[in-house]
């Protein structure tokens, strides 16, 4: 078996205990919270007597003990059943798979933009450490990093949606537009510009700073002086040697930021009224929908694990030591 395949299988098996810990920990935290889904339902729908509340708890299985509920949930989960959403009155799996693609699209485009543009700007800054270009990009990145993501989203809405009216205010697409095909794709793309920009901006700065700092360190390595002594052009040294060695920690940060970007989508989706996975998590918390919230947390953990596995594969492609099993 090739070393990289063996490495991938080990990481995949190591992810199973992580999922168990996430599931058990989330269930215990939700059990420690006060109130339940019936209390939230009564607060939304109006008055309900004690007998009706007791019957509703019995119908939803909330009258049993925590151990019984967890055992029943784990048994159903082993059979591929994520449970029943008390707030949406639908299976949890259907609710999640309705919202998850929207968030994956938002995260995927924002991650690709932040990684590619941040790495490129980091290479431009790190190609000439101490130059005017380096100082300008460093100062600008620090200024952008100091801006909260939700505030940036609101500013973008005011400028480009309210004042200039170039882009939609929010949502994922125009309601009842009747568009299809390329026209609908263009409408969705227009709605994604502002949320993607606000979500990607902060992470773009992280990749820029990390790439720039790593390149400034590599310039002092002996092999760079040897390449310069051989008469190799500076642009070739920058792109083929210095940037390629500097991109490894940036790829590592890409995997670490997957969870942070998934959490950041909660704020962005709330600001731009996008019916995505992050907004679904907020609704599940507000309605004390335990099965739905557990499904959201579990799917989030799986998404982060898959992202880190993909990063591991990218590491094996970029670093020969990983392919050699070291």
Write the layout of secondary structure elements.
Blueprint: H1 3-32, H2 37-45, H3 50-59, H4 66-78, E1 84-85, E2 90-91, H5 92-126, H6 132-145, H7 149-163, H8 182-218, H9 222-229, H10 234-271, H11 277-286, H12 290-318, H13 320-323
Antiparallel strand pairs: 1-2
Helix pairs in contact: 1-12, 5-6, 5-8, 5-10, 5-12, 6-8, 7-8, 7-10, 8-10, 10-11, 10-12, 11-12
Task: Kindly describe this structure.
- This protein has 326 residues and is an all-alpha fold.
- It folds into two domains: 24-91, no CATH class; 95-323, MetI-like (MetI-like fold, Orthogonal Bundle), CATH 1.10.3720.
- Helix content is 77%, strand content 1%.
- The chain has a two-stranded antiparallel ribbon.
- A hairpin with a 4-residue loop joins strand 1 and strand 2.
- It starts with a helix and ends with a helix.
- The mean pLDDT is 83.
Keywords:
326 residues; mainly alpha; MetI-like fold; two-stranded antiparallel sheet; 2 strands
Give a short summary of the structure.
It is built from 13 helices and two strands. With 326 residues, it is mainly α.
In terms of DSSP E residues, the strand content is: under 5%
Largest sheet: 2 strands, antiparallel
State the low-pLDDT regions, or none: none
- CATH architecture label name of the largest domain: Orthogonal Bundle
Q: Determine the structural class based on helices, strands and strand pairing.
A: mainly alpha
- C-alpha geometry: globular
Number of helices: 13
Taken together, the total number of domains comes to 2
Rg from Cα: 24 Å
What's the CATH topology name of the largest domain? MetI-like fold
At the fourth level of CATH, the homologous superfamily of the largest domain is MetI-like
The level-1 CATH class of the largest domain: Mainly Alpha
Can you give the mean pLDDT?
83
Strand order of the largest sheet: 1-2
| Ends apart, CA distance between termini | 15 Å
As a percent range, the share of helical residues equals: over 70%
